[in-house]
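Sequence and fold
=================
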Amino acid sequence: MKTINQLVQDAHQNAVNKGWWEEDRSFGEIIALIHSEASEALEDYRNGRDITEVWYENKELKTRLNDPITTDCKPCGIPSELADIVIRVFDACGRYGIDLEKAITEKMAYNATRPQRHGGKVI
């Protein structure tokens, strides 16, 4: 299994290969793109989609499928949108040279020391 930082490099290299970094993007734009993926997941939820439901869109047939029939069938649903969030975060970390694996490990260790329901914030 690949490490988080290997996945970061893979995601970023794919974005570079697909031309998404031919022109530099602002950090604000990158965060907005991450946010848009979260909004798409929320929209699927608001539309009554089950949180674990995955379906596939085939652009050529202009139809929704339960199983992919070709490699160009796009996975859709909340799991796919959550994956898009992670992929965009990985891409950003690859762009800026962030050691995401270290940041996650450090933050999780810190969070383990926090009190129950810390912060008291409501949704």
